[in-house]
Design goal:
736 residues, alpha/beta, 4-stranded antiparallel β-sheet, 27 helices
Amino acid sequence: MLNSSVTPQTFASAPGASQDSWLFSGSQIDLEGLRAALLRNKWVVAVICTAGLLLGITVTFLTVPTYRAEASLQIDQQASRVLDAPDIEPVQAVQDADRFLQTQIEILRSRALAIRVAETLGLFAGDRFLETMRVRPRTGPIGSLDADQAHREQVIAVLRDNLTVTLPEGSRVAHVAFDSPDPLTASRVANAFADAMISSNLNRRYDTSVYARQFLREQLEQAKERLEASEQSMVAYARTNGIIDTDAVRETSPGTSSAPSLVATSLIEANEALSQARARRIDAQQLWVSTQAAPVMSLPEVLSNSAIQTMMERRSQLEADYAEQSQGRQEGHPALVRLRSEIATIDQRVARLARDIRDSIHNRFVTAELQERQMQGEVTRLTGATLSEQDRSIRYTILRREVRTNRELYDGLLQRFKEISAAAGVSSNNISIVDVASTPTSPVSPNVPVNLGLSLLGAFFVALAVVYLRENLDDTVRSMSEVERKLHITALGMVPRLEDSAVLRDELENHTSSISEAFHTVRSAIELSGVDGLPQSLLITSCGKGEGKTTSAYALARDFARVGKRVLLVDADMRRPSMHKLLSLENANGLVELLSRTISLEDTVRTTSIANLDFIPAGASVPNPAELLGTETMPWIISVMDDQYDLVIIDGPPMLGLADAPSIATHVEATVFVVDASQARRATILAALRRLRLSRARLLGIMLNRVELRTLGYGYDQYYNYNEEKQHSRRWLRRR
């Protein structure tokens, strides 16, 4: 039967095949595909992970150790009051606590605070800090900055880069940490940041009262001007009328309508002073009289003098020391001499101080007597100088009252100004130190376990990236999903790789072997591939030699014959015939002779040891197989064989480099393309399929041969070995 009327197979992908890849199945990651890819590239993954681990070890041991010192600050929303003065700053709402705390954290990280710390510790002077931090100092100008400014900016940047400020959620205790290769520098800088934060907060709180103080200062200036004007008017009137008021602020008699004059006030004060002077003179005279008759060391003034008491106590202590040390030492011992000298010195000082006390008593008496005579003369003078000033004091009282009013207003403003200034200056800080940063004893980095873990993890991700690139750049076709994804061709099935010690014929005889099960699957796919059922003629071909098309044709023919189909197996690979070896038959009087019309069809057909399976060998070697296959005899032979058999399977030559296979594919009803999963490339397969498409052949699909099931995942290995495991289990139970 000729195939000229058969519509060629369209090379389209299976539904959804073009949307998936080896790593993604739809919108999910294909874990089995990933595992298979890792198994295929296990040595690449192992080398990259080992290199990453070695790199991590090298970097870890070459990294300069870094020490971290940490100070803790408690940040309260409101500060406790030191003075009972009204607040100037608005009270923060409780709902804004998080915003307030975050603001304080940003202040800790601010550039201004870093500058304050650098100035406090003197970090701008010289390169010592930068060298300690293992940073190369900048020696020249940068851009618009001169050398000094560039150095300052570098110090500030190093401070801020190595500062870490954290605030645990739900806590008011902020942790201020600083990292440095020098543990002492780390603790100093961390504590400096904490101290600078506290002082900066105090300065800000003090500066918030600047506006209030400025306003009060202006009001004070105005009140002061009014007070001065009223006082000047009062003084001018008093000067004009001869009134001298000595009690303008504190009135002697509240509520009176007149103010005492200077003369009256002086007279009263002089009388009081005279009485006091006379009393002091009498006391001093009596004391002096009693002092003259008594020994100087018995005077109460001498005995009660604190200096003398102290020296006497010291003398007693020295005498006790002298008595104690004199028991075992001679009189000329230096210690005893020193003690006697100190005792004599104290005695001299006590005697001199006692005489001074007695002289002071005499001086006090003389002074009191002189003061009494002077005050008596002053009283006598003021007695005749008192004048009546009642008429002139009325206007003065009015002016004085105005002065008092202005002074009270001024004093009130001044008191408020002082309260605000005092509250701003001594207000309790709402930030306090909880823990002072101590000098760390062990570095925080490098952390050997963490570094090695991260190195290994990073190397693993690099290995994944390399595997991903290799898998995407590799055009090898290894699985059924790759057939449909890379080639857009239906996959009929796949046959696992035959073990080195296994024999194909034995594997096919064992109905439960993975090889046998695989060919059963391919046979079922061929039977169900067409609308009309099983094709009558089937070409088995491949890209090149050695891909297993001959063994595949043999196994499929054997499998079809086993299920009751009358099958004719034809070896059409006249350049490298090998099918006769699998069947243990001679390669004589075969297809070559049949195409040359030197022998009849009946004489070329050989009966095999397999029921329902006949065979036509390739025949004698000829130099021009393509010419023989291109004659009109080939379609006639296929048509005749189709009438006599249920299925004709032709083991054809490879597609690439030869014209034999396209000639055969033109005349058969269907073609199965065999691909070696261990060596076939996408470009090579597409080139072969392009030749097959040009011959208008009907392609049923691709059969993968020599597949490494262990590197594919997908459960094929378990599936193909299911019956074997079941039989093994039954045999084991029977032995038990």
